[in-house]
Amino acid sequence: VQLVESGGGLVxxxxxxxxxxxxxxFTFSSYDMSWYRQAPGKERELxxxxxxxxxxxxxADSVKGRFTISRDNGKNTVYLQMNSAKPEDTAVYYCSAQxxxxxxxxxxxxxxxx
Length: 114
What we know:
globular, 7-stranded mixed beta sheet, single chain, 11 strands, mainly beta, 4-stranded antiparallel beta sheet
């Protein structure tokens, strides 16, 4: 299993960013996917999750209405669209899949600052 995140960077408060996670090594369309984040000095937290077919999505209260998780099973990729970014969204964002165990990508850093 390999998960490779991309799309992180510096964004101004109120701005937008789209994170991508390219998956390989397993039958992507059969598994739920999720995004987590870890801010400096804090524990890793679940941000959003999506079912294998993309029909069911869930979000942390802190990002509900601002972030959107989606997936393209033809491209083996899951996305996290971040809108109305806030400084408290600053963190390393990780893509994750629960296959026979939980797998993680290497993370992509997002900094929200003016």
